[in-house]
Amino acid sequence: MADEQATAVAEETTEEKYKLSLEVDIKTVGPCRKHVRVKIPRQDIDHFRDKALQEVSDTAAVPGFRSGHVPLKLIERRFKKEIGNQVRQTVLLSSLEQMAEDNKLDPINEPDFDIESLVLPDEGDFEYEFDIEVRPEFELPNYSGLKIKRPVKEITDADVENYLQKFLAQYGVQVVKDGPAEPGDFVTVELEFHHNGELLRRMDDLTVQLKPRLQFPDGELAGFDQLLAGATPGTQRQAKVIISSEAEAIEKRGETVDATITVKKVKQLRVPALNAEFLSRLDLESEEELRDQIENMLSRQVQFEQRQSARRQVLEKITESATWDLPEELVRKQMENALRREILEMQQAGFTTQQIQARENQIRQRSITNTRQALKEHFVLDKIATKENIEATEVDLDQEIQLMAIQRGENPRRVRARLQKSGVIENLAAQIRERKAVDFIVNSAEFEEVPMPATTDDTIEAVALSICGGAPVTEVSEEAEEGEE
């Protein structure tokens, strides 16, 4: 038995060392895109066919023959389809792996071809071709000793109180108001958007807060709080909105849209009392403990802004020479990943859902330009992380998920399960790796401290729906609204 195992290991080792005599032709057919043609000589195909034939022969059960003693010709005829599929898969995988190693291809995605449509010839060589997206080739710039400005801010009692009110508002209940709308109140409205008389979109039973700016992923209505000040159920107001220059609806970019707003309800927010019952809901014992947690959240937000500021400055400096082009298809595919990474960071830093939604809308309105830049940043940081052996460990993931769970009042296992189910956990790992690469660069930087500007804009009421339609909705946008009485 020991001898048989040793023989099997020896055969496996020999197979791992088998090198195909490939003929490979690689041509650049666009930004970060290669066209690859691979030719596999008959002798390599026969090698894998003979091996597959022998493996089937050793185990095949054929009436009239003892196992392992069936003539190979009979095995080949009887199991032709199974052997052919096995050989095709082995030849393809082996050739793709060797081709990538020998030619130093660094693919972003899987090859663009249908394996099932490929057929191995009974005679002669085998050829196949495909297109593949690859990482751009570039030289890393110098990233040691960069000069960076660091925004600083001291967390005051007033900051804690201000955030506490926003935090409580997330648990508030909207109640119908007996009186006209005032800035800060909530209204349930029907919104209609027309362009040249054509209805673009109707949003019915949309509840929003009266703030100076009503922001959509592809446009913004300025002066919204004053527009609806004094409104009561049945009030109708008109306004104009200019569609963002980077809206998904290309033909509507820069166009002026007519908005009709019909008020259905006027409501105000009833904030929960900060009592023992509410604190127990958060698994806290005292108001002081809640304020301490809020102060910690605000400190993390300062750290978030410092990290973002350092990241922006670092990336501006290390991508100055990144003049290479990127394919538009890749930019579109990665837009959502870039957005999700920033949302994850804001969740970890303790920003409210409304603050995150406002940032999301701002990102979407300049998504194409930002995504193209974010991709270049990703490739540069990925190359730096590879060079410096930087990885996101399971401990890193556990710590980040724990922070997210605390901020959202959830069980860490539930948060992890949701991230895994949605595929976002891969984005989280990539975000950690890139952040560690930025931190690596920042550790050698020279800093100049400057006052920190306002981190969020509380004048914005963000709506997840697009005026022109078509904008995808992220996990943050899908959260249910609070209850209503």
What's the helical proportion of residues? 40-55%
Mean of pLDDT? 82
Domain count: 3
What oligomerization state is this entry in?
A: single chain
Q: Can you tell me the CATH topology of the largest domain? A: Trigger factor, domain 2
By DSSP (H or I, 4+ residues per run), the number of helices equals 14
CATH architecture of the largest domain: Orthogonal Bundle
Task: Write out key terms for the chains shown.
single chain, 485 residues, alpha+beta, Alpha-Beta Plaits, Trigger factor, domain 2, Chitinase A, domain 3, 3 domains, eight-stranded mixed sheet, three-stranded antiparallel sheet, 14 helices, 13 strands, 46% helix, elongated
Structural write-up:
The structure is a single chain. With 485 residues, the protein is an alpha+beta fold. The protein has three domains: 113 residues, Trigger factor ribosome-binding domain (Alpha-Beta Plaits, 2-Layer Sandwich); 190 residues, Orthogonal Bundle (Trigger factor, domain 2); 98 residues, Chitinase A, domain 3 (Roll). Helix content is 46%, strand content 20%. The protein has 14 helices and 13 strands. Strands 5, 6, 7, 8, 9, 10, 11 and 13 form an eight-stranded mixed β-sheet that branches. Strand 1 and strand 2 form a beta hairpin. The protein is elongated, with a radius of gyration of 30 Å.
Short summary of the structure?
By secondary structure, the chain is an alpha+beta fold.
